[in-house]
């Protein structure tokens, strides 16, 4: 008997796509806890192979094994209902009005049908009787009156139906935006984990059970908020993120970690190759598995001796003997299912047989029932001239009258997959069906040859085993070890997806398994579907230079499972900021504010939108470029209107040389920067002078007087030749003057392309 322990979601790590959820449960006393604990209410969308369980808090208890199953969901009164009372009432009203509209349309159709008022036939040789003009007018008047009433009522109903549909859409949207974590209905399923506990010495006191599992589809994107003080000298950088998930469970008050890594990625392990001198040899073929160990059969020596030492009478009866005895039994009342006394006998056999022999005993009884059906069918055929056309016996065509009893095929020897004609009617009418009861009593059982099932060769010629694809053996989570009595014992055998689902559920009917697979596929598809679009300016995370980083939220956050993106806070750091005003007067006189501060994190700041506030007032939303960890961050804040810049130029041409063979093109630049703010500001004025092409000998550029001195400007983002810049501090209310001149010397017989004047 397993002990159910409630759990809560403690932490979530959201990767580039997908999330790792950690649930926490508490064992009150390790010394008295059971050997099996059951953790329920797990989402259907979780990946089975990702489940991990560990017990923390001290020695003595170890999670020795964990298996997954399907269970009925527990109704949580704290969650909202699947559909609110208001929403259900709106659906009923909308459906009632829609039915009334259909009824009115049908009435109009009937009224519009032609109603003939024929003229009566008169006697031969007499004048024709008068036409029933009054009756026809009465019918037309009645039809017109009814038409008017029905059309008026239909218009009113259509208007009401449109309003009800709008109200219903509003309620559905409000209900959907709240969350998709709702009270489970009684027929819904949830996954459950059954953990086997290994108790050792020192198991005293409380313990904490942590279960981890992956869910698909979760996404996140970074965002930021920068708040400056009024003096623009300090700023607070707040990291935020938008997270979306649709797993079916809300993440309430959880510890959140956001990672740029992939949840699962194939990585080749490095191999050290030997270095040899000689002829090059071809590289050996790489294999994903190792050959089986030598002497594996010796592991089953004790089992073989135990089975051989058992007397034949104590073993399970052979299926062929049961089939022969079945012909001496009285016939059943109706073919197609067993009688109650056979079911009671089956229960006795199943209780008496050991668990691993349940399937052998059950299959023998099934064969016995099939023999009864064929015998009953033969007697009816003698009395009534044969079976009805198209009759089916247990999902098989009826045998020929003179033919021997049909042997059971391999598919009939497997009781977990009943024939299609047998399962839906008889099995559902009789509480799940005989084969269902056999499978549920026999426990789990994959379709491989495990020894718990009778081999198909006992009833039909053995078919050659199909060789498995070697690459499929790399799916370690889908490999099973056959039982000791199986023909392939000692080897790992790959099972199909249907068999994995059969391990989760008790019912073994093929139709039930198909429906369960459809439900699981739907849960996976829903979890992978993020209904909301990524907000503007947001960028999904990626690796930075081949490295991945994690961002841990400092507090507990909440993300509801509605598939929409929700903003959550991560952390906030405060530090000094340097405000620089940049202007390029050659292109325009607008002065742009650029805030420069240091990244307070060891991890890089990913590209994303940033909301800027000054003293609590919203300023603008900009884009933050990728910034290295502990590196410099430059953030543009728009135009500063209180700083005015003007640029004036002067141009002159002079002859040079002994006989005037050269021409001097003199340019002078004058820039005035006026600060209208109440505080001093740092201004960076960028200029550019003509640059010579490499190898040019006939043209020269000479820089004249520059006041104050400038420096070369070479941006990292792009190549710029001839760039120069002034870095000056302008006091509050003051004006700073900048002067520069340069001369271009060319031959007097030539002219620069576009004109000799370089400054406008």
Number of helices: 11
Instruction: Give the % helix.
Output: 10-25%
| Strand element count | 27
Distance between the termini: 92 Å
Amount of beta strand: 25-35%
Q: Cα-atom Rg, whole angstroms?
A: 43 Å
**What is the overall silhouette?**
extended
The chain-level mean pLDDT equals: 77
Strand order of the largest sheet: 5-8-3-2-11-14
Structural class: alpha+beta
Q: In this structure, how is the largest beta sheet organized?
A: 6 strands, mixed
What does this protein structure show overall?
There is one protein chain. The chain is α+β, with helices and mostly antiparallel strands and 760 residues long. Among the domains are: 77 residues; 198 residues, no CATH class; 105 residues, no CATH class. It is 23% helix and 29% strand. It contains 11 helices and 27 strands. The strands form 6 sheets. It has a 6-stranded mixed β-sheet, with no helix packed on it. Strands 20-17-16-23-26-25 form a 6-stranded mixed β-sheet, with no helix packed on it. A hairpin with a 5-residue loop joins strand 21 and strand 22. The longest helix is centred in the N-terminal third of the chain and has 46 residues.
